Each structure stands twice: as structure tokens, then as C-alpha cells.
Amino acid sequence: MKKILNGELTNESSLKAVPLTIDFFKQPTLDLAKSLLGCLLVKETDEGVTSGFIIETEAYTGPEDQAAHSYNNRRTARTEIMFAEPGHIYTYVMHTHCLVNIVSGPKDKPEAVLIRAIEPFSGIELMKKRRGITDLKNLTNGPGKLTKAMGISMADYGRSVCEPPLYICTGIQPAGISQGKRIGIDNSGEARDYPWRFWETDNPFVSRHRKRI
DNA sequence: TGGATGATGGCCT
DNA sequence: GGCCATCATCCAA
User: Residue A74, CA: closest nucleotide via C1'?
Assistant: First the structure.
């Protein structure tokens, strides 16, 4: 609809996106959270391929961030992958929904970027079928919604985000980037007010629930 | 082994 | 804006 990319992506029927390489994910977590805006998230399954532009992220900056699962170097079966090299996929379940993060920071520094919303690009009918709705605006405008729409699950935990079935490709630069407080972390002391949520300014697919600026 | 706890979403008023 | 379904995960015991 809105975006024509790089000469690589043209339209829904000719999606030939090339995954970003590992070096892209080695930048500092706050930078990565911003750099990921506009990139294309792609998931391949037996049912088909779905993709969308990342338009909202949150940074979780490791042991010093009280809102992070890895706060104080808390190391459990769930957070183990956060201690690995950047570019791994960290999925976890909360309230019956699966949320997807990209591990960042150097090995043994447990940081991650949460993908909170995407703008649907390809496989839209499949995403509607999985979500059981037809309204495009509500298809992927939340961290639990987008994983259900794209078929992202705990089966993706620990995978590399540089190769199928779940990977990220170059997209286009967002027209503008807005920044604000992270969502749903009110029980995190001072960290609740850190402005580490980023989104593409005015993009209609940004999550609206529990809005905080 | 069980109780507490959510980086949510959907429905209600 | 408020309420709550629902379950993987963690940790105390």
C-alpha cells in the first residue's frame, strides 16, 4: 500500500526481501530500537508468508533496567537467550499472548528490543484469518496482535533473526520518529518513566491501548 | 507443588 | 477508563 522499497520489494506478489546481516544488530540497544523502525519483519510458515513494517519498538537495556526481565542479571530459562549474542529471537508468553523481541547488546549483556506494532505489508489475508477479524487497523497494532497475525510463537525462541523462518529486512526510513514512556511497566520503579518507546510519527498502526507519552 | 504475577487484548460501561 | 480471562513462568516451601 504505502511503501515501495529499495527496488527489492515492489508489491505483495513479488516479495524478495533480503535479511539484514548480524552486524546490524550489534549497535547499542537504544539505537537499534530506533533503527528497526521502518524495517520489514517477515515470517515464513507452511500456511504462507506474512510481513509488515516495524513501526513501534521498546528498548530494554539489561541488568540496570528495572523494567527488563533481565534486571539485576536475572537469569532463568526464559531470559537465557537475552545473554546470547545480538540478533537472536526472544519470545515469551504473557496473559496467553506471545511477544517477540530481538536480543541486542554484546554477549552476556542481556538487552533486547520489543517489537510492539507493525504496518501490514504482505500476507494480509492470512493475517486476517489468523486473527479472526477483517479490520486492517486492528490487525497488528499491538505486540500480542502482531505475533498472532504472523504466526510467531515460542517455536521461534532462540532462532537467528538473520534467516528464515523469521527475519528482518531493510525497509525505508520513517518520515519521523517519536519517543515516549514504555507501556505496561508501571510496577518498575524509576524505570517506568524512561522514554524508551519509539514509534513512527503519526503512523496509524501504533498501539493505542494504555497510551503514554 | 501451588500461589502470585504479568512488556495484553477484548469487552464493558 | 475499568475489569478480567487465562496460562507460562518463577520461586518459596
Answer: C10
pLDDT digits (tens, 9 = 90+) for A47-80: 999 999 999 999 999 899 999 999 999 999 999 9
In a domain, A16, yes or no: no
CB atoms within 10 A of CB A135: 9
- Nucleotide nearest residue A131, measured CA to C1': B9
> Exposed/middle/buried for A2, CB within 10 Å: 0-12, 13-18, 19+?
exposed
Backbone angles phi, psi at A50, to 5 degrees: -125, 150
> Residue A6 falls within a domain, yes or no?
no
DSSP codes joined into one string, A76-87: -TTTGGGGS-TT
**Beta carbons of A109 and A82 less than 8 angstroms apart:** no
Tens-place pLDDT, residues A7-37: 345 444 445 678 999 999 999 999 999 999 9
Structural domain count, chain A: 1
Which amino acid is present at A183? I
Which domain CATH number covers A126? 3.10.300.10
> What integer is the mean pLDDT of A174-200?
95
Q: How far apart are CA A152 and CA A165, in angstroms?
A: 10
Rounded, the Å distance between the CA of A209 and C1' of B11 is 13
Å from the A155 CA to the B3 C1': 28
**Domain residues for A172?**
29-200
In a domain, A59, yes or no: yes
